[in-house]
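Hey, quick one: can you model this chain's 3D structure?
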Amino acid sequence: MTMTDADVQKQIKHMMAFIEQEANEKAEEIDAKAEEEFNIEKGRLVQQQRLKIKEYYERKEKQVELQKKIQSSNMLNQARLKCLKSRDDHVRSVLEDARGKLSTITKDKQKYTAILQALLTQGLTQLLEANVFVRCRQEDQQLVESAIPNAQAEYKAKVGKEVSITLDTNNWLGKDITGGLEVLAMKGKIKVDNTLEARLGMISDQIAPSIRGALFGANPNRKFTD
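Sure thing. Here's the predicted structure for all 226 residues.
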């Protein structure tokens, strides 16, 4: 059967419609797949950026928290240092007040002579030398001279040895010394400083913890008291 031009044209149109339909379906499939891949990639990128933002703000939050802790620690340390300084200043003022009252010791000549004798004897027992010389304030010369024999006798009773004591009248103690004396031996190479200032300084070091405790109470963080 011979096909007419109309039949050919009809078949061509049918084939073209089929091809166009397939092309449209394929295009829709590609579009759908592209849309799906786009949404998947978009979701991945959004999640990735969300995690980055979360991590960024978590780091920032940790930095802020750390800064707050550092600042709080610094402020606490500053407050503690101010408290310690204030406490030490108060203790120092108590000791300074005691130092200011040293001059009253020398006013009672009888008691002061006994103190000079005790200081001299203590210096002798520390040195344990056969020959010593003593320095004192010029105004204490007579008191020290009167204390020397008793100190020698007390030293002999304690140690069982004689000691020769010479008062150094060429080198008096300075005007800044309130009282007491120095005991020297071996041409001044060794010395026991028993001035009132030196004795107060030594006692202050020993009793400072007790003063702090009396003024401010026991320190709960202190493990050792010596």
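One thing worth noting: The two ends are 130 Å apart (CA to CA).
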